[in-house]
Write a structure and sequence with these properties.
Chain lengths: ~110, ~110
């Protein structure tokens, strides 16, 4: 069971370039999330998707777009990368409803924008 | 908007000492989760608290949810070097919003 898989693991972009971060989960979860984590800081929610076909903004959505391609996949796109988007990006998924809605995280994508 | 603050930001302890991190919300939480992130790793779920005043234990870790459901704490008894990492609380009321985290360093 792979859990949550993110690609790529590392990426260097030049300012103004675009790229898409891929995320896939094999746990049949409805909810998926994209976070960014800057050095010494917590995880900030960029976008999330409560179910297939729906997406919603999180705390820091500016400069990003997302696509919930199907139940398994949730991609994050940077249309015109900026140095301020240098960060570690984590994708996560969870199942809605109690008793436990624990989120499972991917290994992260370390993105540097120069 | 949702805001979840954690204190302290950093904590250095000698192995064997106790450690506590506190999580405070400006709004009432429906439930709260705790995660641990090892250096260079990804967050890993520890526990979820749902009920007012709830206390849960996992070996040396004790988690508490406040009576008003606006705060929570994680207490580690007799820390070990394996406890090193950053501990996050997360508000799961609407969407999963993480606290600012407490980084724990344990010196042998």
């Amino acid at each position: 069971n792979a859990g949550v898989t993110q690609t790529p693991k590392f990426q260097v972009l030049k300012t103004g370039q675009s790229m898409t971060l891929q995320c896939a989960q094999d746990m049949n979860h409805n909810s998926m999330y994209w976070y960014r984590q800057d050095p010494g800081m917590g995880l900030r929610l960029i976008y999330y998707s409560a179910s297939e076909g729906t997406t919603d903004k999180g705390e820091v959505p500016n400069g990003y777009n997302v696509s919930r391609l199907n139940k398994r996949e949730f991609s994050l796109r940077l249309e015109s990368a900026a140095p301020s988007q240098t960060s570690v990006y984590f994708c996560a998924s969870s199942e809605a409803g109690l008793p436990s809605t624990e989120a499972f995280f991917g290994q992260g994508t370390r993105l540097t924008v120069v | 908007g949702q805001q979840v603050m954690q204190i302290p930001q950093y904590q250095h302890v000698q192995e064997g000492e106790d450690f506590t991190t506190y999580c405070n919300s400006s709004t009432t939480l429906s439930n709260i989760q705790w995660y641990k992130q090892r250096p260079g790793g990804h967050p890993v779920f520890l526990i979820q608290l749902v009920k007012s005043g709830e206390v849960k234990k996992q070996k040396r870790l004790t988690f508490q949810f406040g009576e008003a459901k606006k705060n929570s704490s994680l207490h580690i008894t007799a820390t070990q070097t394996t406890d090193v990492g950053t501990y996050f609380c997360a508000d799961n009321t609407d969407k999963l919003i993480f606290g600012t985290g407490t980084r724990l360093q344990v010196f042998p």
